[in-house]
Structures are given as C-alpha cells and as structure tokens.
Amino acid sequence: MYYFITILIIGVIIFFLNQKLKSDSSSLLQGKKLAIERIKNNGTIIELDAENCEVIKNDTILKHNYYESSETYGLKFLKIAKYNVKDKYQIQSLLVCRYINSKGLEQKFVKQIPMDSTILRIKINMQKKVKIHINALNNNYYIDLNFLNN
Predict the structure, then answer these.
(1) 54: which DSSP letter?
(2) How far apart are CA 23 and CA 118, in angstroms?
(3) pTM exceeding the 0.70 threshold for the entire prediction
(4) Cβ–Cβ < 8 Å for 96, 53
C-alpha cells in the first residue's frame, strides 16, 4: 500500500515539474521571438549578395559507435549484429556572411543552420540576397532566412 502511495506522489511531482519546464521553455521562446521582432523593427537592414556569404559544412557526431538495430531476424541477425555500429551524425551548416561597413571594417555574421550545406548553398544562390537586421546599440543581429521554409 505504501509503495502505491509513494509511486503516486512521485508521479504527481514529476507531472508538476514537467508542466513548469514546459512553461519556462515557452517563455524563453516568446522572449526570443520578441527580441527578433525588436531587432527587425528598430535595426538597420543590410542586403548582402549571395557571393558575400559562405556556407561551411559543420556536421557533428552526436554519438560515437551508436548501435543501430537491424530489421533482419534470426541467426543471420546474430551474425551481422556486431558490424552494425555507426557514428550518429547531426547534419548542419554554418552560414558566414561578410560585410564591409562605411568605416572600412569587415564584419562577420554567423549562423548555424540545421540543413545540409549543399542544399543551403543552392537556396541562398537562388535567393541572390540575404537580409541582415543589425541593432547598432548592442551589436546584436538577425540573419533573415525565412526563404528557407519555402
């Protein structure tokens, strides 16, 4: 009987902690959206040609020697199971845009994007321009890549 009550209490605690974490993450997301809107509305816009932006492949290994289960069953599965170990990758790219400001100084704007570098290069070249919103007061910037969603 006591085990049941203990498990019930732990379940209620986990439920409320989960609700708290969800509300915290949604408030962080709202804060990020608000900051982006503020930069878009109050910042200066720079349009760079696609030639001024470089795409760098930046894949990272999430797990070394990750075992992937096979769809083959039976004795054949037991034979090949030890060879089905691979590294698990996260495909991502770095977008580096360079801009020479009115003072002659080069500024770099960098954004990490969860997309294959070849596809990102093609989409940026098709767009031909990349908009960057800059807040001059605190040097924050936002690279507008809404065209990637199309």
Answers:
(1) E
(2) 37
(3) no
(4) yes
